Amino acid sequence: MKNETVSIDEFNRARSLFTTYSYETDRFFDARLAFYFQIVQEAAGNHSAVRGCSIPTLHEEGKTWVITRSKIEVHRYSHWPEQLHVETWAQEPIRLHLPRVVRSFDEHHEPLFTAKTYWALIDLERGRPCRPGRMSERIGLPPSEMQMDLSLTARTTYDDSNCTTLVTYKPKIQYLDTDSNQHVNNISYLNWALESLPASFRDRAKVAEADVSWIRQTFSGDDITVVSGSLDKEAFSGSEGVLYHKIVRSEEDGSMTVVWEGTTRWEKREKLSGIPS
Predict the structure, then answer these.
(1) Looking at the 3D structure of the chain, how many domains does it have?
(2) Cα–Cα dist 231/138, whole Å
(3) Is residue 153 part of a domain?
(4) Residue 52 belongs to a domain with what CATH number?
(5) What are the φ/ψ torsions at residue 113 (nearest 5 degrees)?
(6) Which of 263, 195, 201 is nearest to 231 (CA)?
(7) How far is CA 177 from CA 25, 26, 51, 137, 220, in A?
(8) Element (H, E) at 249
(9) Which end of the chain has a smaller Cβ tally under 10 Å, C or N?
């Protein structure tokens, strides 16, 4: 994935151009959901870098960024080799989070996806979040009348959903799963959850909405298990519905810690795919 251009307008919105390369698509040449999540991460990183608060710069200040929650609505998946126009901006802090919007459009300005994300600024020495007020001033915020409602309601947890477990999957954390913060990158959790699902189901369906949370850091060598389920015991035989996911880590004392969880809402592939005219 290559970022072609980055610019920031007078309203503190950063704009970028991305290309849907073949290695970012599935077997039907439609973009993978992970590609959209990568764009969200890259667009935020580029905006922060231009404002002098990228992760490498923050490491020198003893701080770093981590994403804690992301909710994305997919309007359409781009198709190889389509270009995506992306814009992003930060908003007023919500408690200890700096929320951010990332939106993408095609060449006709038709929406591709809208993502609402929460980022935390972490003190590396203490391992604790910092208040993001000064950081929001460094990045710059758009006028209040241009800001969106980014309050995200509580999401039903996997254990509280009363769903039926349909599949479990044990990935092995690879070297490339880890990032500059020395923990597993947020994209890997999503990929593991999707990898747990049957190929036949994913051939028929695509994610229309995903709401996920990163709860605990995970490191190379951790013993983790992906669990996916649904209220519909026959969910994998259809092409629509809601799935619940969680990733748990086995601790040395035998206990299990939830490190990531979320929900995905699926629709027929044909509804979310399409070659642009």
Answers:
(1) 2
(2) 45
(3) no
(4) 3.10.129.10
(5) -155, 160
(6) 263
(7) 19, 20, 27, 32, 8
(8) strand 241-250
(9) C
Contact between 161 and 244 under an 8 Å Cβ cutoff? The reply is yes
Q: Which residues lie closer than 8 Å to 78 by C-beta, 6 or more apart?
A: 20, 30, 31, 35, 84, 106, 112
Tokens 């704009």 correspond to 15
CA distance 262 to 244: 6
Mean pLDDT across the stretch 261-276?
92
| CB-CB contact of 182 with 219 (8 Å) | yes
Give Cα 28 to chain centroid, integer Å: 22
Is 255 part of any domain? Answer: yes
Q: Which two tokens stand for residue 63?
A: 């701080």
Is 54 in the same domain as 187?
Answer: no
Residue 277 lies in a domain: no
Sequence letter at residue 226 = V
Range of the domain at 254: 164-272
pLDDT digits (tens, 9 = 90+) for 14-44: 999 999 999 999 999 999 999 999 999 999 9
Instruction: Please check whether residue 91 is in contact with residue 147, taking contact to mean a CB–CB distance below 8 angstroms.
Output: yes
Q: What is the pLDDT of residue 201?
A: 97
Neighbours of 220 (CB within 10 A): 13
Average pLDDT over residues 196-212: 97
Name the residue with tokens 């990929």: 191
Rounded to whole angstroms, the Cα distance separating 124 from 62 reads: 5
Question: Is residue 223, in this structure, part of any structural domain at all?
Answer: yes
Residue type, 83: Q
Q: What is the percent of the chain where pLDDT is above 90?
A: 85
Which one-letter amino acid corresponds to residue 16?
A: S
Two structure tokens written together for 92: 């007023």
